[in-house]
């Protein structure tokens, strides 16, 4: 199938009138007005003298519009569009720059040798206006982007692009864009051989073109319709569509590209009908139109644009090679200096690495010794605290023996020497002495701890308190795991000390003791009371009770957390790992 020129110039026309222009100065030419060549030349001189780049940009743009609309094949807007684009680039007017760049791209859509510029220019405009969220400007370029892929039979993204055009037009609500959308759909469905769908969209675009008096849209819709009718074998209807399209394009010089394609299609129709005279007539018309188009100012400018871009690329390549050679020479001159510098730097680096390594190893050794010193100090402090606790325990036991058992034995001795004392009284006193001995023995090494383990020994400890107030609650959770006798005794002493502190000082109504055996072999101990509490920041260093607790926890590598506030009770949580 021959490629045909869709609507490059009319696309420009739409862009010029649909884009919202950020200009309100009365002295600049308006794109909605028509100017004579003399008026435009006068404005160019004025803005050149003023060095007004923005004024030049709008004047070149108006010049291009006039050349496109009024002057026919002997005039081309490409040069003035490029000048306008360059001026907008200097002024950093991105919106106008991309509008013109996209418009230039539409001129190159159906020229195979320059199509790469068309897609680059149009896609750049689409991406810019999409980023800026300007659907009024994006939509026209987006239709052209779809048409490039349609003409190249590259249908992968066409449907997605046209769906976006349809979505944008629901916001823009422009009937002309609606016609362009259906025209693109018609071409798309024709090329994928869905002729009925293509005809449906061609009819819609034709009606829109007729209603809005858009010649190119009418002519193009009829042209695509004729292609579908040809594929369906409906030759007479095909000829009617072609002849109607012929009338439109012959009355409008800017549609010469489409005119050429229509002549070729009519020639093809007559060849099928074996009317060789008529076929020859339209072959001549197509050839004349092709020559006229080839030698037109428009096509000449397009070719010049391509050649200029090619030469520019070649100049850039040559300049790049020259620059690379110059840089290579400079690098060669510097190579010896760099090599000498590298040698010096390597020597210095080796020296500094040696110094740093020595310093690092010395520091590591110092840190290791310091850490060992700290560890030893902690061990010494822990042992001192344990020894201190043992000494305090011995003093307490000594006092209990002296005050309790010693006094009781003295009374027994006195009573035995007293002839009037009965054996029953003496036996009763001996029983009391035995109970006292058992109590002291139990405090030294709880019998229940040795026989039954930690949980039963805590139960026994609480039972021996025989306390109604405060109420002592003991809870234990988790599966018990084995703990060494030494560790069990220390844990027992910790709980005993915490419970004793609560009983003596807290004035509590309830004491809660919890032991939790966790799966990762960690034992968590919690002792809480609802007593009067205290300021934990004011615990005196010489407080032997807390020192004993902390030293035992440290010895077991545990962590202790104390929380207490006046009138808010006390909570002590201890976590001891056994891994």
Strand segment count: 5
Quick one: CATH class of the domain at 447-577?
Alpha Beta
Please give the count of helices.
20
- Could you name the CATH homologous superfamily of the domain at 447-577? Histidine kinase-like ATPase, C-terminal domain
Approximate strand percentage: 5-15%
Strand adjacency order, main sheet: 1-2-3-5-4
Helix and strand sequence: HHHHHHHHHHHHHHHHHHEHEEHEE
Second CATH tier, the architecture of the domain at 447-577: 2-Layer Sandwich
The overall pLDDT, averaged over residues, is 80
Shape: elongated
Query: What percentage of residues falls in helices of 4 or more residues?
Result: over 70%
Uncertain runs: 1-25, 310-314
Q: What is the radius of gyration computed over CA atoms, rounded to a whole number of angstroms?
A: 51 Å
Please describe the biggest sheet, giving its number of strands, its sense, and whether it closes into a barrel. 5 strands, mixed
Helix and strand composition category? alpha+beta
Q: Give the termini separation.
A: 83 Å
In CATH, the topology of the domain at 447-577 is named: Heat Shock Protein 90
Short description:
The chain has 579 residues and is an alpha+beta fold. It is built from 20 helices and five strands. Among the domains are: 316-444, no CATH class; 447-577, Heat Shock Protein 90 (2-Layer Sandwich).
């Amino acid at each position: 199938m021959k490629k045909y020129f869709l609507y490059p110039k009319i696309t420009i026309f739409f862009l010029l009138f649909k884009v919202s222009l950020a200009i309100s100065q009365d002295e600049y030419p308006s794109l909605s007005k028509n100017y004579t060549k003399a008026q435009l030349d006068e404005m160019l001189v004025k803005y050149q003298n003023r060095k007004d780049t923005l004024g030049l940009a709008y004047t070149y743009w108006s010049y291009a519009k006039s050349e496109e609309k009024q002057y026919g094949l002997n005039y081309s807007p490409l040069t003035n569009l490029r000048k306008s684009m360059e001026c907008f680039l200097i002024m950093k007017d991105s919106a106008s720059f991309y509008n013109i760049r996209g418009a230039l791209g539409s001129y190159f859509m159906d020229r195979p040798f320059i199509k790469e510029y068309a897609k680059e220019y149009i896609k750049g405009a689409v991406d810019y206006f999409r980023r800026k969220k300007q659907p009024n400007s994006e939509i026209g370029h987006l239709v052209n982007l779809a048409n490039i892929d349609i003409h190249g039979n590259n249908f992968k993204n066409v449907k997605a692009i046209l769906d976006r055009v349809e979505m944008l037009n629901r916001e823009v609500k422009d009937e002309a864009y609606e016609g362009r959308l259906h025209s693109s759909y018609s071409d798309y469905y024709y090329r994928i051989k869905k002729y009925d769908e293509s005809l449906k969209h061609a009819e819609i675009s034709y009606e829109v073109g007729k209603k809005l008096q858009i010649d190119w849209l009418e002519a193009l819709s009829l042209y695509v319709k004729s292609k579908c009718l040809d594929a369906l074998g409906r030759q007479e209807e095909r000829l009617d569509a072609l002849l109607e399209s012929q009338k439109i394009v012959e009355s409008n010089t800017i549609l010469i590209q489409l005119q050429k394609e229509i002549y070729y299609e009519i020639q093809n129709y007559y060849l099928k009908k074996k009317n060789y005279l008529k076929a020859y007539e339209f072959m001549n018309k197509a050839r004349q139109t092709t020559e006229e188009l080839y030698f037109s100012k428009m096509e000449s400018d397009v070719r010049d644009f391509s050649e200029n871009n090619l030469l520019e690329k070649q100049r850039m390549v040559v300049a790049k090679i020259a620059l690379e050679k110059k840089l290579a020479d400079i690098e060669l001159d510097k190579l010896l200096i760099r090599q000498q510098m590298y040698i010096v730097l390597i020597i210095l680096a080796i020296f500094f690495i040696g110094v740093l390594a020595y310093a690092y190893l010395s520091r590591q050794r110092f840190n290791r010794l310091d850490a060992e010193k700290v560890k030893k100090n902690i061990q010494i402090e822990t042992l001192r605290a344990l020894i201190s606790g043992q000494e305090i325990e011995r003093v307490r036991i000594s006092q209990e023996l002296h005050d309790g058992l010693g006094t009781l034995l003295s009374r027994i001795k006195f009573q035995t020497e007293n002839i009037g004392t009965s054996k029953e009284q003496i036996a009763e006193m001996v029983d009391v002495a035995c109970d006292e001995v058992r109590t002291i023995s139990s405090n030294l090494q709880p019998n229940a701890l040795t026989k039954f383990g930690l949980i039963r020994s805590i139960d026994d400890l609480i039972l021996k308190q025989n306390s109604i107030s405060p109420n002592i609650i003991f809870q234990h959770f988790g599966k018990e795991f084995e703990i060494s006798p030494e560790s069990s005794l220390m844990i027992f002493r910790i709980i005993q000390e915490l419970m004793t502190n609560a009983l003596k000082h807290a004035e509590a109504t309830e004491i809660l003791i919890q032991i939790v055996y966790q799966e990762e072999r960690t034992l968590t101990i919690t002792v809480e009371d609802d007593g009067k509490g205290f300021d934990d920041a004011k615990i005196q260093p010489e407080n032997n009770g807390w020192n004993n607790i902390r030293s035992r926890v440290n010895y077991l590598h545990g962590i202790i957390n104390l929380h207490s506030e006046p009138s808010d009770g006390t909570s002590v949580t201890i976590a001891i790992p056994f891994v």
